[in-house]
Amino acid sequence: MKKLQQLYEGKAKKVFATDDPKKYIVDYKDDATAFNGEKKGQIADKGIVNNIMSNIIFQMLGEKGIPTHFIEQLSERETLVKAVKILPLEVIVRNVAAGSFSKRYGVEEGTPLAKAALEFSYKKDELGDPLINNDHILALELATEEQLATVTKYAYAVNEALKEFFLEKGLKLIDFKIEFGVYDGEVILADEISPDTCRLWDVKTNEKMDKDRFRRDLGNVEETYQEVLSRMKK
Ligand code: TMP
Fold first, then answer.
1. What sections of 23-97 are H helices per DSSP?
2. What is the number of the ligand 1 atom nearest to the C-alpha of 198?
3. Do residue 64 and residue 89 come from a single domain?
4. Domain identity same for 199 and 125
5. Confidence of residue 98 (pLDDT cuts 50, 70, 90)
6. Do 197 and 159 share a domain, yes or no?
7. 3-state class of 134 per DSSP?
8. How far is CA 201 from CA 39, 118, 170, in A?
9. 123 with 221, same domain?
10. How many domains does the chain divide into?
């Protein structure tokens, strides 16, 4: 597999073409941003942690019948994936109040939610990724009705699988963000699942084991990413 020209550089990853038009190579960076890029930094070896962890999780989800873009890990930071067209939606599932949900509704962080709550943001940096509802997604033709139904079904299924998976590692899944893409006309899970995109709290101490350590300057950022990775491998 030949790595060809760079197609895209995001905040945390670069995407490269390959000699197969149906496959991309993603290359995970150590760059970290928060608040729509306002806060910038680096987390040493984050790219390695997020690459390995995403791949472990995508394989686990694949075994549970959720199709993903994952094909094969190529190196510490690089993975071969299916060349999807990303739907411009951030798909967020919440089990416990935190972050923007707590702020928007005035609910204390850590309050369990009566049901897993799905929400969408419109992926558009210029607008700061605003919250969007199902009708607006259809009205703007960001996804078809069928795609939206599939995304919804997979999002809840991913939540169930991830909750169980992380609990075995001593981590409570507070919330997470996933993204989907279209490949051969089908909706599949893409992007990454990592401490950048999930809130994970230690089951015993409630310590934050995710990117909130960077966002909120809580310290021990690198150590936390390494600890999460070491738990993934157990
Ligand atoms: P929020 O509470 O800030 O809306 O975040 C909800 C979840 O989504 C949390 O697990 C962090 C994740 N997330 C991303 O992956 N990317 C983003 O740009 C934002 C704002 C949140």
1. 46-63
2. 10
3. no
4. yes
5. very high
6. yes
7. helix
8. 23, 20, 8
9. yes
10. 2
Residue 121 belongs to domain with CATH number: 3.30.470.20
Same domain? For 209 and 95 the reply is: yes
- Mean pLDDT for the chain overall: 98
- CB 100 less than 6 A from any atom of ligand 1: yes
Owning domain of residue 37: 3-82
Å from CA of 176 to ligand 1 middle: 7
Answer left, alpha or beta for residue 90, where phi above 0 means left and psi between -120 and 50 means alpha. beta
Residues 111 and 172 in one domain: yes
From 92, 95, 108, 109, the mutation candidate for ligand 1 (largest count of ligand atoms within 8 A of CB) is 92
- Tell me the whole-structure pTM to 2 decimals: 0.98
CATH number at residue 43: 3.30.200.20
Give the closest residue (by CA) to ligand 1 atom 18: 36
pLDDT in tens, 26-39: 999 999 999 999 99
Residues in the chain: 234
Q: Which of 110, 130, 109, 134 is nearest to 121 (CA)?
A: 130
Query: Can you read off the two tokens belonging to residue 57?
Result: 């999780």
Query: Residue of the nearest CA to atom 2 in ligand 1?
Result: 99
Is residue 179 within 8 A of residue 2, CB to CB? The reply is no
Residue nearest (by alpha carbon) to ligand 1 atom 8: 177
> Which of 39, 166, 177, 216 best tests ligand 1's pocket when mutated (most atoms within 8 Å of CB)?
177
Banded pLDDT at 1 (limits 50, 70, 90): confident
Distance 4 CA to ligand 1 centre (A): 31
